[in-house]
UniProtKB/TrEMBL annotation:
Gene3D superfamilies listed in its UniProt record: RutC-like
Protein name per the record: RidA family protein
Endoribonuclease L-PSP/chorismate mutase-like domain location: 5-141
Family annotation (SUPFAM superfamilies): YjgF-like
Organism for this UniProt entry: Erythrobacter mangrovi
Domain of life (superkingdom): Bacteria
InterPro entries (UniProt xref): Endoribo_LPSP/chorism_mut-like, RutC-like_sf
Amino acid sequence: MSIHDRLRAHGITLPKAAAPVASYVPVVVDGHTAYVSGQLPFVDGKLVTGKLGDSVTLEQGQQAARACGLMILAQLEAAGLLERVSHMVKLGGFVASTPDFTDQPKVANGASDLMVEVFGEAGKHARSAVGVPVLPLDAAVEVDAIVALKA
């Protein structure tokens, strides 16, 4: 089953790949590895902003992380790489949160679970989930990725 077939089977529609907001490119390929720049969460066309532990609930944070994961897939699609994904190597999850919020791993599960949903076993990956005081544009979550590509 192709990745596009899997997306359809799961009822997943990819968003339009977002343009960079600064001086970088969305995806860089080195050999058989794609590095996807940090992606911000857009839900229903609106950036999810705020901090976990304050104005953003755990469930909203997980939804935001999933939206970041969808944008990672959209960037791979825009670069013509989505069908070449061999497996997800690593996700980096950055969660804007208050000092007492400690559920960053649960938030990042929103993106991690999406990758397993879409790629199956090939979606399992290493990961970091880090709490930060602020993210670009006051985003609640940002996720980047390292992806192995088929030859």
